[in-house]
Amino acid sequence: MKELKKGIMIMMTGILLCCTTGCWDKNELNELAIGELVGADRDPDTGKQTVYYQIVNPEAVAAQKGGGIKAPVYTYCVQADSTSELGTKTANLLPRKLFSDHYQSEIVTERYAKQGLNSLLNFFEKQHNRRSNLYLFVTDSPLSEVMMTYLPLERLPGRSLRSIIEIQSKLTGRLSRRVRIKDLVENMESSRLTVMPMISLSGSSPSPTTDRYEKIEANQGNLIFSGGAVFKNDRMIGKLPLNQMNYYFILKGESEVFMESLTINNRTVDVQAIKPKVRRRLDLISGEPVWKVDISTKLSLVNNEQKNELTLENLKMIEEKFKQQVFQKATEFYQESISKEWDLFGLEEKIKYQNGKEWDDMKKRGIAWDKTKLQLSIKSEITDIGQTINPYVGDNDGNSSN
Amino acid sequence: MLFIDEIDPKTFVNQIVSTFQNPPDLVNHIFVISPNLHGHCVFIETLVDKHKIEHELLHFLSEESINNELQSSPDIIDILQTRIPLSSITETTDLNHCVQKLLDGWCLLVIECTKQALLLDISKTPHRNVSEPLMESTVHGPQEGFTESIEINLALLRKRVKNIHLRIEQFIIGTETETKVRILYLEHLAPTDVVDEFRKRIRSIQIDSILDSAYVEEWIQDRTISPFSTLLKTERPDVLASHLLEGRVGVLVDGTPDALMGPVTFFQFFSAPDDYYQRAHIATLLRWLRILSFILAILVPSLYIAVLTYHQELLPHSLLINLSAQREGVPFPTLLEAIIMMITFEVLREAGLRMPRIAGQAISIVGALVLGEAAVVAGLVAAAMVIVVSITAISNFVAPSYKFGITQRILQFSYMALAGFMGLFGVLCGVLFTVVHLASIKSFGVPYLSPLAPSKFRDWKDVFVRVPRPWMNTYPQVTRKKRRRRI
Amino acid sequence: METARISTWQFFILALGYLLGTSFFFRIGGLISIAKQDAWMIPLWSGIAGVLLVLIWIKLANYYPGNTIIQICIQVAGKGFGGFIALLYIGYFVHLSALITRNLGDFMKINLMPRTPIVVFHVMFLLVICYAVTKGVETISRSTEFLFPLVTVTFLLIFFIALSEWNWDRFQGMFHMNIWTTMKETRSLIGFPFMEAFVLMMLFPYVKSKNRIKVSFILANVVTALLLSLGVFFTIGVLGVTRASHETYSLFVIVQEMHIGTFFEHLESTIALILLIVIFIKLSISYYCAVSGLCQLFQVNNRSWLSISLILLVSGLSLGFDNILENIVFNREYYFEYMLLFAVIFPLLFLFLTWMKKGKEKRKVVGSQA
């Protein structure tokens, strides 16, 4: 019995010693540099990579007890020839261990995106402590300026960018939430194009000091959403202007909301479609591929500047106008993208995977995906007209612009 | 060995007195029946009802008519046995037996020239009155608690279970203390094997003294090395009654206000007597609350350590920044900080238990101000740590059984150590170990985790929910061997 | 032999936990990378193969009621040859335990704690397993019964939360597979988990009602096949074929990217814990079989010392692979053939020998009557 006890004691000691090795992965909270926003650039000529890290200064962000406003983030810049060298150089610079789990957003420069993000994305997917569900932005402003500006109100720039996406997808429909790194990665091996948001710096110069928190003027040196970057596989091939973004997302079926400004009786009427239902189907009509998109939605009247009273006929008119305008603009957008050979909706793959004799015939005849026609049908009904029925009639001539 | 029929009664009495080494409370009263017939009345005056001896026994013995009768009759003992106005009278010749009974508070009556002695039960020991249970207070329901006297305790139980099937078996255990231990059960409900097991285990006790039911518990429990208890303890007669009525077995020990009950399952530690004295849905909600606080009490400190030192990514972003700001400048590693705070709290609690009531206030001031406020302001601990300690402590007190609270503390500290070593992996290994341990325990043949594992769905009426009384019409399956339905 | 008894329900849960447990984590990505959008069909036909195998095993077990596979070996083929085969079986049980242990270590090391030495995970977990095994099969089945609902609820939760990522477009290109090559490439799915389930033959003698083993075992196989198929389907719909076939642990990635609002994010450590629980179920069974097999073969009564010393062997063997790629390749290329020996060839051999013996006895009886 005594020997047994001794044996158990020795074993327990061994086990406990073994367990202490667990501490190898231990990090105290104040040994971490919490990364919040990361920006990457690559010089096309020299191949040099530049990475900016924005590190949170927790004491300034957490509830303050006096002491005024302190810098919420610090930006570190590292330049290196390869990804692994980046790691060592980061260690030279940062006094704490970089904690990358909580990145809020990632920015790449336009020129980097045009060279292809392959290495960056692969690196990202390989790391266990990096999340591919963070939003990726492309910027056309100089990265050093984008990364060196303080933003008012939402003081963590990474968060601020994240909320741009949330707000755009909820309020204007010009973005969907599916603009994350993983959405880009998923299309890396397919012919479908991906659209990522672009941001640029507003105003002429960044505001790199905390003085800006004391100014009332908020526009200067702010990051604003400026359009879409079109990626083929991992390479950026073009831009979408802001005013086409909502047509892209509604055709893709990802919009949560859709805004349209109509002109009726020479006066402006703004309508909003909330959660439009979009059904998309590829069909073959007399040997030609046709992409059928049915949009059915309920509209709410946001703004009505007409002088007329709001009657049922008038509502019908608005609905009709909405139908026409969306049809026209979306078709325009579609044609434009086809003419640029942009397969934004993955039609090439869709056709490839179609089974059946007719489809095979079609493929044999060598009709490419870009011959696909768009057949758009829109159904809408106004269900919400707002708090007033008839608009107040004032004295002005009702020009919508002021 | 001495017997009265072998020697002179007078010598017998002297022998008894000298056995006791003549303590001050031993009374040897000599009374006269007739000039040539003397009697001895021996008792320990601290253990008997003196009033009864003086006013009933001695008064009776000095009556003229009796004296006459005794003088004339040849069989004095027989007359005394039938005529003395007391109910428990036995005759004996054995000296050792007499000594034993004297220690129990009986009175020894020896008449010279007779060959037998009489023992009369006039015991009266000082005891506490029936009062409210201290540890298990309830809002509703009966407010009587057990006392230190086994007779009163039994009376409290009998009062509630008026049933001819109630069986009481007495054992005298403890070579030095000769303590009464009684097992109680309802014969038509309690499974025979469980009762046999109880009997067997109690008979196997070899101990010199028993001062509390805990002494018995440690002998008859299923597992010695385990933080979990396989016997329930209660100081409420109503709880004991309710368990007996579900076919379990109770153990009463003389000199202690705690009754033991078994077999017990893990989930019974989450039910409080209150559950049955208020509406079913409230009882159910409260039970969930207790389970939640059990989980909180054992896991919160360890999860805090694990998340803060190994899995920071689990924290929401703003919380991470907040905690990070709090920990800025705290000199200790999280594990050490947690251990210091938890141990300090344990010390405080123990001090609060042992301290004289009057000094109690000092403790609370020191605890609240120094540990809570000052430590944070001085930057020695993070404010979040103080919150963690408080949550743990408060949840710990929710446990209906004090014993179970101690179990929680053992688990909580071992999980903390594991969390410090291996993060969540360590905690999970600890939890798995605990689950395996729980699954391996049986309490008097009943699996500890039943009715969940092995699953007996019918018994879930009183586990995670407490269904209204009319639906609780069957006995639990483990004790259902003899009868299925309650009515 | 223990005098333990487990109920049919407990056996079902054990079988289900054993079959589904780890395969749900480690199989899905591999299947998708081979069969793309059609991967969800593979578990279905593998499940059918699994059911057929179960029928063989049950047939064999029915000839020797109350005996484990080790005892059957000895009874059928004698002390010498039978003992040798029994030893091979025990060797396999130990190897299997080592493989499962390694799965756990790899997972923890790759995803959660990259700097901790892998042995620490192994030893620490094996200690818990060892404790469970020492306490016996009743304890294992009761703990499984206790933990199973926990795992199920968590999985359901994950499913419902992750469904927000669902996209039907990801199923484009279904029904395009070459059935024969796919079958050949995914044959290892029959090996793991379906063939592995013969390990459960070690538990047959403990089940209370013998005639319901068959039903519950087959049911467990069917449920496993369906749930695996559902899991693959779900992974395709949520993660997409491209990413699922690149990731080592697709289910883990799903949870990694799951979020409830913007407040609860990065919940992957919690899923890791669930994985640990299912590995616990599987490992405790295989480890128990190794230990009790040894006990039965060498007629040892006390399991505890055997199980403690086996920790060293298992944790040593589990270091056999250098990295997870070797493990995956072994699994894909050789595992099916390896398992074929234990799960099909030996049982069939035993059945054959049994029939021979029976035939002989019959002839003898007939002969003596004549």
TrEMBL record, chain A:
Protein name: Spore germination protein KC
NCBIfam families noted in UniProt: spore_ger_x_C
Record GO cellular component, one term: membrane
Pfam families associated with the record: Spore_GerAC, Spore_GerAC_N
Homology family: Belongs to the GerABKC lipoprotein family.
Record organism: Croceifilum oryzae
TM stretches of this protein: none
Keyword Signal: yes
Annotated membrane topology: Lipid-anchor
TrEMBL record, chain B:
Family the entry assigns: Belongs to the GerABKA family.
Identification of the protein by name: Spore germination protein KA
Family matches, as InterPro entries: Spore_Ger (IPR004995), UPF0353/GerABKA_families (IPR050768)
The keyword Transmembrane helix is assigned to this record: yes
Organism: Croceifilum oryzae
Keyword tags: Membrane, Transmembrane, Transmembrane helix
A GO cellular-component term linked to this record: membrane
Record's keyword annotation contains Transmembrane helix: yes
Chain ranges passing through the membrane: 288-310, 330-348, 369-395, 415-439
GO biological process: spore germination
